[in-house]
């Protein structure tokens, strides 16, 4: 397989994966819908940082430990599930405090509108999801042509995933911002947090019970 063919083929696979609604989509949409555009871009950069790290580790063969070591996978799986449950719990709890908590609770749940805060949240969300690592271990090597530099080609393929993720995230943030005025109303914000918290909680449970 030629390098150009590998890049286009991988772009098709991860492009479909990127468009599939999931945890990253829910987190980006919620953050942007609450008017925290700076934090939303931080979340996007954090998610893509995690993707680059997974791609680099896979290219080096390190993430093969997740498939070879049951203990390593279990530790990461439970850590990821606990983190997602904590995040979902905070979102859901805030919706029952109502207006009594005011803007302080909103900042507590969503975090301050800073790039660094969003980056930490996005990076942790991505790196604590072992299924991302397992996906890269299973898929990435299949698109590296025989004889190509393993690490360099692996990073090139991962960069394709990152670029597609950035493009789709731009669409998500723009869409959420367009509805921002309505979504930042008290009632709409409670609905948004309950839906997002439920989605993230469901991902946490699914991660915890998956084999």
TrEMBL record:
Principal subcellular localisation of the protein: membrane
Keyword entries, A-Z: Cell membrane, Membrane, Transmembrane, Transmembrane helix
Organism superkingdom: Bacteria
Cellular component GO terms held in the UniProt record: plasma membrane
Entry membrane topology: Multi-pass membrane protein
Subcellular localization: Cell membrane
Membrane-spanning intervals of the chain: 6-29, 41-69, 134-153, 159-179
A family per Pfam: LysE
GO molecular function, one term: amino acid transmembrane transporter activity
PANTHER family, alphabetized: ARGININE EXPORTER PROTEIN ARGO, ARGININE EXPORTER PROTEIN ARGO-RELATED
Listed name of the protein: Lysine transporter LysE
Organism: Streptomyces filamentosus (Streptomyces roseosporus)
């Amino acid at each position: 397989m030629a390098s150009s063919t590998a890049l286009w083929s991988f772009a098709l696979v991860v492009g479909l994966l990127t468009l599939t609604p999931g945890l990253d989509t829910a987190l980006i949409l919620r953050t942007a819908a609450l008017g925290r555009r700076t934090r939303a871009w931080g979340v996007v950069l954090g998610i893509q940082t995690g993707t680059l790290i997974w791609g680099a580790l896979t290219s080096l063969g390190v993430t093969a430990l997740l498939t070879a070591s049951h203990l390593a996978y279990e530790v990461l799986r439970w850590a990821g599930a606990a983190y997602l449950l904590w995040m979902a719990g905070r979102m859901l709890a805030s919706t029952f405090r109502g207006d009594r908590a005011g803007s302080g609770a909103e900042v507590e749940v969503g975090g301050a509108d800073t790039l660094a805060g969003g980056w930490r949240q996005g990076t942790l969300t991505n790196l604590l999801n072992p299924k991302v690592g397992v996906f890269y271990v299973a898929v990435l090597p299949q698109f590296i042509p025989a004889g190509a530099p393993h690490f360099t080609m692996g990073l090139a393929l991962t960069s394709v995933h990152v670029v597609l993720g950035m493009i789709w995230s731009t669409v998500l943030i723009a869409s959420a911002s367009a509805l921002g005025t309505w979504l930042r109303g008290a009632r709409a914000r409670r609905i948004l947090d309950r839906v997002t918290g439920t989605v993230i909680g469901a991902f946490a449970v699914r991660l915890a019970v998956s084999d």
